[in-house]
Amino acid sequence: MGTSVFYFVATLSVIFSLLVIFSKNPVHSVLYLILTFFTFTVHYVLLNAQFLAVVNFIVYMGAIMVLFLFVLMLLNLNKDNEPLKSNMVKIVGVIAGCCLLVTLIGSLKATAVSDPVLLRNPDLGLLKNLGKELFGPFMLPFELSSILLLSAMVGAVLLTKKEKV
Amino acid sequence: MNIIITITVTALVVLYAGLFKAKKALLTITLIGLLTALAFVVTSWNTSQTYYGMMQMDNFALAFSGITILGTLFIFLLTQNYFAADSENTAEYFTLILFALAGIIIMLSYQNMSMLFIGVEIMSVSLYILAGIRKSNFASNEASLKYFLMGAFSTGFLLFGITLIYGATGSFDLTVINQYLVSNYKTISPMFYPGVILLIIGLSFKIGAAPFHFWVPDVYEGSPTLITTFMSTIVKTAGFAAFIRLFADAFAPLHDFWLPPLLVIVCLTLFIGNVTALFQKNFKRMLAYSSISHAGYLLFSLVALTSSSSNNALVYAAAYTFASIIAFAVLILVKQKTGNDHFDSFNGLAKRNPLTALVLTVAMLSLAGIPLTAGFIGKYLMFLNVMNEYQTYLVAFAILNALVGFYYYFKVIVAMYFKEGAELQLETPIQYKVVLVLSLAITLFLGVYPAVILNLI
After folding, report:
1. Which residues of A touch B55 (CB under 8 A)?
2. What is the CATH number of the domain that holds A102?
């Protein structure tokens, strides 16, 4: 049961993420990206990672993507002001991307495949364990990311503040 | 740890001082903070300490911290008459530079790849903002956006690489990864290899090595010159230290695997950096390309992993940092006077400003690698290290590129001494004089008496 759900949702994620890059309209792209994130949430639930599922649902799908959508609508991306890329760049990009894809698929195929939904430790993704990890072994990076957030905040205020001229 | 705490606390104090309009005190507070951090570097020398298994303040980290903190100190001295002229937000600029420095210290001393990521991000986020602080200047906006997009893209590579390596080894810890490679040498998970390649790509983006260098010229040219100074010296040194720490410590057993891609990157970087620099008419853009080519020389320390590799990188980074600070400081002075940064602005500079011209000449000679300057010692050590591994063709190629470099570095010297031009009288503030003379002293001292720094790590 779990495995068939996994394969169904995984197929959906692949289809939706392909639609993100192939749809012409940027607003449609973002909408497909939201659907892709929703399928990721289902994956997290299947892995029993409840906290990640909730955070992915509320923060990424809910907040950040809606912000994306607003920015796109404000930017008003039309076909006219979209820069044209030469065919050469496109071909090189496709070749490079395919090389990366082949390498990744090859290396993942060569590794031993485990059952996608079998968990060695079913409590792995629970909130309690995540907290223990964050405030135990990973306390230093957790605390230091406060510098990252503060510098981003200072920067956001700095860049949006009206300059007195 | 105390170094990071000192720097971040200084940043916060500066931020509050800005809130209370204590504009005069900003520089003093910052300098006191940085000097305290520098004192911590000196006192904790030879006492290798590990913090929570996440950060290791060994001599490698301390030596590079010393260079980066000293370089940042010089850059802060150059802020005299620079920011205050066109903005009210000097305190915020100072804070962001200090935050970036805190991120850099993390990048120098990480023991766990999660720390590497956080360090890189703290540094990069502060720099994206600093590149765009000239809000009314189109080039500055472009630089900021370009840097942000490219940086976000390269962070993706970095993260993906870290993920694959975690998948293969089950740990972020550098020691555990190294142990895994040594004990499972025959049965390394196939996921590990693309992980290493992706990490090379991600880090090459950050240090601006070809073919991942295309953002460098535009970003360096568009950003405010002082920020460019910070990016092309301190940030570059930090990126290299992170590179060396990861590849010389953790991935050393796989040297045979990642050497060929690295060699391709080194050759491309040397060639593209030097040859493109030849055609530049703009001094700032020329320095951007020269910084790309120096990235190539710095990568030499990873081509042949010996016990002295990291020390060679330290010597080279020190030589490059202080010579570049001189070049950018003089550029700021010339640009404030003439309003542009073309080579023509330097014509006839030597007649009225003998000291500045002399200092810039020494800096150019050091960047080109002429004996009796620090740059020569750096290049010599790099070449010697690689020669011990019998990479003769590589050294021959690098020497040819160094000869190309002579041409464009001498173009500035020729312009200053032998060309007729408007006889500018540069106004050199006292702090600029201090920085110029100190950097000159370091460059010459390391060139004449390199034994001080030669066996430091």
Report:
1. 140
2. 1.20.120.1200
Reported as a single tens digit per residue, the pLDDT across B331-382 is 998 888 888 888 888 888 888 888 889 999 999 999 998 888 999 999 999 9
Residues 6+ apart with CB under 8 A from B354: none
| CA dihedral sign of residues B372, B429, B86, B7 | positive
Q: Three-state SS for A161?
A: coil
Query: Are residue A33 and residue A56 in the same domain, yes or no?
Result: yes
Helix (H, G, I), strand (E, B) or coil at B282: strand
pLDDT tens, residue by residue, B267-325: 999 999 999 998 888 899 999 999 999 999 999 888 888 888 889 999 999 999 999 99
What's the pTM value of the predicted model, to 2 decimals? 0.92
Which of B78, B19, B83, B100 is CA-nearest to residue A157? B19
* Cβ pairs A/B, distance under 8 A: 83
In chain B, the number of structural domains is: 1
CB distance B126–A155 less than 8 Å? yes
For residues A109 and A160, membership in a common domain is answered with: no
Q: Which domain holds residue A119?
A: 2-77+85-125
Nearest to B233 by CA among B311, B317, B123: B317
DSSP 8-state class, residue B49 = E
pLDDT tens for B27-65 read 899 999 999 999 999 999 888 888 888 999 999 999 999
Tokens at residue A70, please?
């607003």
Same domain assignment for residues A98 and A156: no
Its domain, for residue B123, covers 2-454
Note the pLDDT tens digit of each residue in B184-236: 888 888 889 999 999 999 999 999 898 888 899 999 999 999 999 999 999 99
Q: How many CB atoms lie within 10 A of CB B31?
A: 14
| Residue B270 near residue B213 (C-beta atoms within 8 A) | no
- A140 to chain B, minimum CA–CA distance in Å? 7
User: Which residue type occupies A129?
Assistant: N
CB nearest A148 (choices: B15, B118, B194): B118
Same domain, A89 and A43: yes
